[in-house]
Write a structure and sequence with these properties.
The chain is of the alpha/beta class and about 375 residues long. Helix content is about 45%, strand content about 10%. The strands form two sheets. A seven-stranded parallel sheet has the order 1-4-5-6-7-8-9. Helix 7 runs parallel beside helix 9, helix 11 crosses helix 12 and helix 12 (about 215-235) packs parallel to helix 14.
Length: about 375
């Protein structure tokens, strides 16, 4: 891998005129504020429609990107990934760069999302896990006792040097298109670690949360530190925004979320507040948690397809942009039906302070890529100011 990339990391570390210096300037710019134009050299992405919407500023059109836009729905992705395991793909800057760029080229979306997986930082610190095709992340030694916490050491930038390298390559290619970094939220990571893999009922997770609240708090706090470090690496390398995914937190009641989960998520979001990049927070089945998740500190709340955006803004309250929320299954219908359902989403978003159009969950693997391309064009045309 290093030979094929030709020593990119070394050039960046020495202040490569396109990448190394670019990192330094961007990091210094964003420390000021995402809502105030920085002084000095302007960021290439600052005036993008996506970042303006995140800051709740007027936009030339409603920006669009899709969760899982870089992935199995694209034939070029499937061809590139042939013979390469998921985690290996996430650790090769050449593959990460190409996969991240594919949907930007094809769909003309307003933002790229870094190709990775939420378990990458856990793998990087030595947790024995793998992503099994058709199953998902599988952990060899689930965490269910205090001594199991020894698996979770601190994450350092050196552990994920391939992330820094890939983002350096991407920011050079993307130009004015923002790059979104991301990480898994502490609860969702904890669920994988405690269950040993994906779970429908999260019985081991809830048993630990209710039965040993002190161990649970220590587990989530340690995961918050790891997640914070992972997001900081991405921002300092050049990511223009970050999204915190809490995929499984919709399994909790509001009181349990507030008591046992919200402090750790808030810690993560606060840890990157000083960078000034927009922070997006998203979970699945979280309609009853939207207000509390908003209180955790995000600038943009992601909304799944189960709650309309006009209702979501009532639950979240003022002062935040919303992201969402077309049902991804709609894309399997006729173009006319897709447009009609898109109109409903845009109508519900008409009174929002800021709106980023997205699906209410990730792109489904068998989605027709042309349907996504048409959707981007339709939203751009329909909302042109």
């Amino acid at each position: 891998m290093r030979g094929r990339l030709g020593g990119t990391s070394a050039r960046a570390a020495q202040g490569h005129p396109r990448r190394g210096g670019h990192f330094f300037i961007r990091a210094k710019i964003w420390v000021v504020s995402a809502n105030t134009r920085p002084t000095g050299q302007p960021s290439q992405t600052y005036d993008s429609a996506f970042l303006k919407a995140c800051r709740r500023e007027p936009v030339p059109h409603t920006p669009v990107w899709f969760m899982r836009q870089a992935g199995r729905s694209l034939p070029e992705y499937r061809k590139l990934r042939e013979g390469t395991q998921m985690l290996e793909s996430c650790m090769r800057p050449d593959l990460v760069t190409e996969i991240t760029l594919q949907p930007v080229r094809r769909h003309k979306v307003d933002a790229a999302i870094f190709f990775s997986d939420i378990v990458v930082p856990l793998k990087a610190i030595g947790v024995d896990l793998d992503i099994k095709p058709g199953i998902g992340p599988v952990v060899a030694q689930p965490i269910r006792r205090r001594e199991d916490l020894a698996q979770l050491r601190d994450l350092t930038p050196e552990d994920v040097s391939y992330v820094t390298e890939a983002i350096g390559m991407l920011t050079g290619e993307l130009g004015s298109t923002p790059l979104i970094g991301f990480a898994g939220a502490p609860f969702t990571l904890a669920s994988y670690l405690v269950e040993g893999g994906p779970s429908k009922n999260h019985e081991h997770t809830k048993a630990l949360m209710y039965g040993d609240p002190e161990l649970w708090a220590d587990l989530l706090d340690r995961l918050a530190e790891i997640t914070s470090a992972f997001l900081k690496v991405q921002i300092e390398a050049g990511a223009s925004a970050v999204q915190l995914f809490d995929s499984w937190v919709g399994a909790l009641a509001p009181a349990d979320y507030r008591r046992s989960v919200m402090p750790a998520s808030a810690k993560v979001l606060e840890s990157v507040a000083s960078y000034g990049v927009p922070r997006i927070h998203f979970g699945v089945g979280t309609g009853e948690l939207l207000g509390l998740m908003g209180e955790a500190g995000a600038d943009v709340m992601g909304v799944d397809y189960r709650v309309s955006l006009d209702e979501a803004v009532r639950r979240v309250g003022p002062g935040k942009a919303l992201q969402g929320n077309l049902d991804p299954a709609v894309l399997f219908s006729t173009p006319e039906a897709v447009e009609a359902k898109t109109d409903e989403v845009l109508a519900a978003a008409a009174g929002l302070e800021g709106h980023v159009f997205n699906l209410g969950h990730g792109v489904l693997p068998t989605t027709d890529p042309d349907a996504l391309t048409r959707l981007v064009d339709y939203v751009h045309t329909k909302t042109a100011r």
